[in-house]
Design goal:
This protein is an alpha+beta fold and 208 residues long. It is built from 6 helices and 10 strands. Strands 1-10-9-6-7 form a 5-stranded antiparallel β-sheet. The protein has a 5-stranded mixed β-sheet with strand order 3-2-4-5-8. The N and C termini lie far apart (57 Å).
């Protein structure tokens, strides 16, 4: 199935990488990421090979999930994988994120402007949880229910360390310092959404 015929691509935008610094992988320009996982590194068996200083043989991988999320993972590289200037182990990518692998600098983007608009700054009445990926929203809501990292990990089938990494990303994205503030933010906006969905007095049937 081509991206043009893919309903997911139409809904969340077509993910791509733009090379800002460093050699083109195998002499070709990267424009679109395929569904599934690709490996980036200097090894001949990598999907995207960069023969550049500071790039490990298998440096990082990027996965395009069926829910539209795109996540980058460091693969134990010597010099680290950086997103937005911060060294990461795992990070959900957002439109405009800059990725650094050694001497290679990339920019992640979505081709569909509707997706960029959806990820824009929060406006009046906008739910900040919309800035999170599906997995991050799951974790934030479990935190609001008082679950520990270990309990969340068991429910989601991931490690507690991965939960902690997701939480660090959530704190940064929502500009909250800890899980208590995060829980309060989630509960406030969940309550506001419930109020918005509740029928008003004018919607209730009038007695004859």
């Amino acid at each position: 199935m081509s991206f043009d015929d893919d309903p997911l691509a139409g809904r969340v935008g077509i993910p791509h990488l733009e090379i800002l610094a460093g050699p083109l992988p195998r002499g070709r320009r990267i424009e679109r990421l395929p569904r599934g996982t690709i490996v980036l590194g200097r090894g001949l068996d990598c999907d995207l090979m960069f023969e550049a200083e500071g790039v490990s043989r298998k440096h990082a991988k990027i996965t395009f999930f069926d829910d539209g999320a795109v996540t980058i993972y460091d693969l134990g590289s010597r010099n680290g994988t950086f997103v937005g200037g911060q060294r990461i182990e795992i990070r959900d990518l957002r439109d405009g994120d800059e990725i650094v692998l050694g001497a290679v600098r990339l920019r992640f983007g979505r081709d569909d402007p509707r997706y960029r608009q959806a990820q824009g700054p929060t406006g009046s009445g906008r739910n900040p949880l919309d800035l999170l990926s599906h997995r991050e929203r799951e974790i934030a809501r479990w935190v609001a229910q008082g679950l520990s990292n270990a309990e969340i990990a068991r429910r989601l089938g991931i490690s507690a360390r991965t939960v902690g990494t997701h939480l660090s990303n959530i704190y940064q994205r929502l500009d909250v310092p800890n899980r208590t503030k995060l829980a309060r933010l989630v509960l406030e906006h969940e309550m506001a959404r419930t109020e918005q969905q509740r029928p008003s007095d004018s919607d209730e049937p009038k007695a004859p």
